[in-house]
Amino acid sequence: MKFIMILLSVLSLSLQAEELTEREKLSINKYLAERASTLEAVEYAGGREFLSGSLSKKNEKILAMLYTLEGFKKGNNYYFFLVVFSRTESGLAFLSDSLVGGKGSRTLSFKSMGNSLIEFTSKFSLPGDPQCCPTGEGTAIFYVNSRGKLRELNVSPKMP
After folding, report:
1. Where are the domains of the chain?
2. Residue 29 pLDDT
3. How far is the C-alpha of 35 from the C-alpha of 29, rounded, in Å?
4. 123 Cβ partners below 8 Å, 6+ apart?
5. What distance in Å separates the CA atoms of residue 117 and residue 119, rounded to the nearest whole number?
6. Is 140 exposed, middle or buried (0-12, 13-18, 19+ CB in 10 A)?
7. In this structure, are residues 62 and 55 in contact, taking their beta carbons and an 8 Å threshold?
């Protein structure tokens, strides 16, 4: 029973793409197309993960998204990015974007959002891990300052 309650709470954190407005979907698609073009990469659309919420007592609505870019300059690498938007009446307003992981380093999954922090569970590579399958586990916390800029605060590994 406890497992089911934990699973339901984790599932309720993530926002599905279908819950975005059409205007938000268009804004995200445009942003990602421009980002991929600038970095000479392509987006892996199946790698999008969303979290919606409020970061502060001001109740500013935030949309955070993890996304994957791959094939940089026709190569075989891929990287994970975190982008944060403010949800306004006129649409999404870009706040910040940060490289947060990639092939042979780490992956992140949303855990929670609040008090100017976005918390993630992380999997990271340990010596001897194959590039596909990191075995290290931990927590990554990103701070979103008053201007919307991201800064990673820590990574707390739990060794296997």
Report:
1. 2-158
2. 95
3. 10
4. 106, 107, 134, 135, 136, 137
5. 6
6. buried
7. yes
Backbone φ, ψ for residue 73 (5° rounding): 50, 40
Separation between Cα atoms, residue 7 and residue 100, nearest integer Å: 24
Question: Would you say 69 and 35 are in contact if contact means Cβ atoms under 8 Å apart?
Answer: yes
Lowest mean pLDDT among 15-19, 117-121, 139-143, 149-153: 15-19
Residue 160, both tokens? 């296997």
Burial 67-96 (b: 16+ CB within 10 A, else e): bbbbebeeeeebbbbbbbbebeeeebeebb
Token pair of 119 as six digits = 């918390």
pLDDT digits (tens, 9 = 90+) for 31-72: 999 999 999 999 998 889 999 988 776 777 899 999 999 988
